[in-house]
Every structure is written in structure tokens, then in C-alpha cells.
Design goal:
Elements: H1 13-21, E1 25-30, H2 67-81, E2 86-91, H3 101-112, E3 121-126, H4 133-143, E4 147-155, H5 159-164, H6 171-182, E5 187-194, H7 201-212, E6 218-223, E7 226-227, H8 231-238, H9 246-259, E8 265-268, E9 278-280, H10 287-300
Parallel strand pairs: 1-2, 2-3, 3-4, 4-5, 5-6, 6-8
Antiparallel strand pairs: 7-9
Helix pairs in contact: 7-9, 9-10
Length: 320
């Protein structure tokens, strides 16, 4: 089943939720006080080179507050824009399965029970190397009671690029986590980044091929953001690399969507950051404009999701 509309020739998240639940679903970004194995020395230090000091959770809840207060604070803002909406707590900052199981149960349950009558599920952002069998089994049990989504950071299928950005995770580890989650019938969303240093359009399309060949239900498209106090910003200052223009990002993303399996839901088309932290590209500040330009480009060129998709057998992981 696809969720295309006249204006959006792809599976938009809003349309997916509207047809599934009958109304808008708003994600409530939360901060669960996590860290990351790529920051604490377990696998690396400093994190992925693009990751901010907030663990890519700039818009998550106030870390000084408990989960309930974070939820209500964000919910009140959402409610002012969309009075009649359902909610999904979204653990966004850092790696949100990187803790003992008892702690995960505690904070997930707290988030799900702030407004249980209007909360339809939970979304958890994490890494492929932070999904154990124990955690997957727990999420599977939780998934029988509510809608569980797990977002896995892939960024790229190019292992050389992953080393350059200090991802400290192999594609094999990503696939292993995906298998554990799908064995529990959990919806998985992959994050990818366009504009990583040294990558070409072929790399961008190979990443889509990697996703197409896996049992993945959703995708988030991001442009590379150079933020203050990040390693990739330091790299750029010392040895500048090409930063995508808005026009390049629009065309690349539209082409990726055209190659993407037509059953995959698009959860995000563009990334944004706090203006004070953003170094480049400045055009990302106008996120809505970027999203609209992708829609316009696809309509103008008679493109739709999956039009170039061809099933293939691909191997993009090491046997480490």
C-alpha cells in the first residue's frame, strides 16, 4: 500500500498517520539522559564527526527536567498548533537504548503514561550496535501493547565514508540489529545523510539500494549540517570539501526517492539546526522551503517514489 497524494508523489509520514489513526500524530522529542558508545570510549570518543554536543537532540526536551515535565512542555507547544492531535514520545538525543534494561523500561513507561489516552506509540533513536537480543525482546513485548518505532542511524552504506565520519559501527552491525528488531515485528526507520565529504551521487544511490534490499519500513533524509564545536566543522575549516547547494540536495533527494521502494514511509525530507549553531549550509534554516522544493521538483519532472526501483541482491557489509 502506498500513501501518495497529488501534491506529494511519495509516502509521506503525515498521510501514513492520517490514514492509520484518522488524525495527525505529533512526535514529542525527549531527552532521556543517555550517552553513546562512540563518546564514552567503549567504541570511540568524540562521537560521529557531524554529531552536535547535544547528541543531535537540539530540539529534544529540557535535560534538566523529568520525562513527564518534558513531555507536557513540548505537548503544550504542539497543542497550540494542532489542537486535535495524537502523540508519540520520541527519545531523540544520543543513543536511546544504550543503558540497562530496567532503566529503559522505567523511562519508556513514564513517557507512554503521561497522557495514555492520546499516546499511540513510542519512537526510539539509537545505533545498530546498541540493540541486544534482550532489548529487542523487550521492545517486541512492548510492541504488542503499543506502536514501537526504532530509528537506526545508518548515514551511509559506504564503509570508507563511515570510517571518515567516525561512525564506529559496521554495516554488518546495522543489519544484525535490524534482524533482531524485525524478528520482533518492530518498525525500523533508517537515517541517511546526503552531502557527506567525498561522497558522489553513486554513493547516495548505493545507500538507497542498501535500504531497498533490507526489511526497512521507513527512512529519514538529512543534509549534512556543519555545526559549531563538531569534528567535521574543524575538518572543513582545515581542508574544505564541497557543501551541497540547495538545488543539489533537492535533485539528489528526489532521485533517491525515485529509486526507493514504494512501500517505505518517508519520515523526514530535510534536516534543520538552531541558527546560532549552524555554520553551513545556511539554506537549511528554511526547512519548509527545502521540503516544498523537493515536492515541486518531483512534480515538475513527473517523478514518484519507486519509479526507478529494481530489486537487486547487494552486499554492503563487512564480515568483521
Amino acid at each position: 500500500m502506498n500513501y501518495f497524494t497529488k501534491d506529494k508523489p511519495y509516502n509521506s509520514l503525515n498521510e501514513y498517520y492520517k490514514r492509520t489513526y484518522g488524525k495527525k500524530v505529533a512526535k514529542i522529542p525527549l531527552n532521556g539522559w543517555f550517552t553513546c558508545p562512540n563518546r564514552d570510549g567503549t567504541k570511540g570518543v568524540g562521537g560521529c564527526t557531524f554529531c552536535s554536543k547535544q547528541g543531535s537532540g537540539e530540539f529534544a526536551g529540557d535535560i534538566r527536567k523529568n520525562i513527564r515535565d518534558q513531555f507536557l512542555e513540548v505537548k503544550n507547544v504542539m497543542e497550540a498548533k494542532w489542537p486535535d492531535t495524537l502523540y508519540m514520545p520520541y527519545f531523540q538525543a544520543y543513543t536511546n537504548t544504550y543503558a540497562k534494561l530496567d532503566y529503559l523500561k522505567e523511562i519508556y513507561d513514564e513517557a507512554l503514561n503521561v497522557i495514555p489516552e492520546k499516546t499511540i506509540g513510542i519512537s526510539i533513536a539509537t545505533r545498530g550496535d546498541c540493540i541486544t537480543e534482550e532489548i529487542a525482546e523487550y521492545l517486541g513485548e512492548l510492541n504488542k501493547k503499543t506502536h514501537v518505532q526504532v530509528e537506526l542511524g545508518l548515514q551511509t552504506a559506504n564503509e570508507a565514508t563511515s570510517k571518515r565520519i567516525n561512525r564506529c559501527m559496521t554495516n554488518y552491525e546495522f543489519i544484525k540489529a535490524l534482524t533482531l528488531l524485525r524478528n520482533q515485528n518492530i518498525e525500523v526507520i533508517a537515517h541517511i545523510i546526503n552531502g557527506l565529504p567525498g561522497e558522489t551521487i553513486d554513493d547516495n544511490l548505493n545507500t538507497i539500494d542498501f535500504i531497498n534490499s533490507r526489511d526497512i519500513q521507513g527512512i529519514k533524509f538529512h543534509s549534512l549540517l556543519l555545526l559549531k564545536d563538531t569534528a567535521i566543522a574543524d575538518e572543513y575549516e582545515k581542508n574544505p570539501f564541497h557543501i551541497l547547494t540547495k538545488e543539489e540536495y533537492v535533485e539528489i533527494t528526489a532521485l533517491q526517492i525515485a529509486h526507493l521502494r514504494d512501500d517505505i514511509i518517508i519520515h523526514r525530507l530535510a534536516a534543520d539546526a538552531k541558527a546560532d549553531d549552524l555554520i553551513e549550509p545556511k539554506w537549511t534554516i528554511r526547512k519548509l522551503t527545502v521540503m516544498n522544493d523537493i515536492d515541486k521538483f518531483m512534480r515538475k519532472n513527473n517523478m514518484h517514489q519507486g519509479m526507478f526501483y529494481k530489486p537487486s541482491i547487494s552486499e554492503y557489509f563487512s564480515e568483521e
